[in-house]
Amino acid sequence: xxxxxxxxxxTRFARLKPVLDAIHDIIESAGPLGLPSGxxxxxxxxxxxxxxxxxxxxxFMVAKCGIAxxxxxxxxxxxxxxxxxx
Length: 86
Hints:
Layout: H1 3-29, E1 35-36, H2 37-44, H3 51-64, E2 67-70, E3 73-76
Antiparallel strand pairs: 1-3, 2-3
């Protein structure tokens, strides 16, 4: 990636960050039992999120935002603590 591409990606992420934070908060508010993925998709559909975009978003959040997806249920994963962070 060149500098221009990095700037574009940073701008996209800056625009997407509030959405990711809101979705993270929704999942977190569901508690330890989590939120069924289909319920979250149903909440986002009226906002214009199609199924492929939703899957991309969930996969990103699982990879980068502390979200776990198991048996179609989304949960917030506890932060990993290491000996050096204590």
